[in-house]
């Protein structure tokens, strides 16, 4: 048996409207949040430029200028008339040099080391190492400066020139390294400035895009809410049409919210009213037919009984002499019996017996009905097959009436196969508390118009019969609280499907039919 279909969770109109405005709010919050983040990043970069990069560039510039002045003074120190004044200047320069290198290191730390970007931090540590290397190389200037002015005091010109040349060479190299360091820092500053400008442009573009997107989402959500509430007008129009008497079934647009549930429930109510009207008309028609049939049957049964009794007396008087007369008597007697059978059938419509419900095995009832029909089916070349599902097939039913309904359906199926065929009777228990009985034939089938009128009293597709068999069957099934339908059978033929309420204590079977054998005409 197939698993029950999964129940789709319902989404209310309120939740959908709330969801639409939540989407709008979220998109707007994203736009505002992005704007705040972009402004904070821009502010952080501006602070970094002001407190890091600009002081670093200025400190390196001052250090390069100081070293350039240092080298210029060294070039003329041996030829000045008053070397004492120069010595004071050089000592002051040496005293301020560590402070200037400290400013450079502090600026590098502020611009690079504090960055969250590992690459930028790595560049800062490299710049710090280079700065420290330059300062370490210039640390020998103090000792050589003492040596230089000692040679000048002793008027040792050659020694003074040699020391001065060494100091100038080292200073020039330090200046080149400082200049290279300055250029590298400047390039990094330019790169960072370009990146900041690109981020600013990108932030503006994204902000504009997010703003446009937020506006579009707002418009879309407004249209969505309008479309969501539009079916209410359709339900109102449908209610007005029903009030005017239009009970024609209408398709319902599938929706999992309250409006869809309301429309589905309303259409179900309309269908129930239409079915109730049809059943009321059918009941009134059957009641009228029953009254008429009861009256007619009552009027003709006594004459028929008298005719039948007189025929028996006439048959006894004739004896065995006149064969032709006896044949005529038998023919009249057969017609009288047929009229009696019709009278009984009319009475069955007029006076339905009350149900005598008992716990019964429906499978056994069907088997007994098939046994009863075996000889009749065999005479017409029809084979009956039974397919019972595993599990309990019990229900509270009136055994005699259910058996009569099955016999009526099997007889109807037999008449639909004048050249013989197969009748398949199946029964299974479903998980929704029902027993499903099917009666299939391999006849030529029925068109849709005939299937729609098949259960009407006196309607028949055959040239004989009263057309009451299926009407009685429907009456029996509906009296049990069940339903009956006629449908086209896959592969040709007709299928009658009956549903009856299963006993509450019965466990549902797996629903797969098990072939319980065939009932043929051989006995």
Description:
The protein has 523 residues and is α+β, with helices and mostly antiparallel strands. The chain is built from 12 helices and 8 strands. The chain has helices at 13-76, 83-113, 118-137, 141-153, 157-229, 231-243, 258-318, 323-350, 362-379, 399-415, 448-453, 469-479, and strands spanning 358-361, 382-389, 394-397, 421-429, 434-441, 483-488, 494-501, 513-519. Strands 6-7-5-4-2-8 form a 6-stranded mixed beta sheet. Helix 4 (141-153) runs antiparallel to helix 5 and helix 6 packs parallel to helix 7. It starts with 12 loop residues before the first helix and ends with a strand. Mean pLDDT is 76; it is low at 1-9, 508-516 and 519-523.
Proportion in helices: 55-70%
User: Quick one: how many beta strands?
Assistant: 8
Indicate the overall shape.
Answer: rod-shaped
Rounded Rg = 55 Å
Number of helices: 12
Order of helices and strands: HHHHHHHHEHEEHEEHHEEE
Catalogue the unreliable spans.
1-9, 508-516, 519-523
**Helix/strand class:** alpha+beta
Largest sheet report: 6 strands, mixed
Strand content: 5-15%
Q: Please tell me the overall pLDDT.
A: 76
* CA(first)-CA(last) distance: 34 Å
Spatial strand order of the main sheet: 6-7-5-4-2-8
Task: Quickly list its features.
alpha+beta; disordered C terminus; single chain; 523 residues
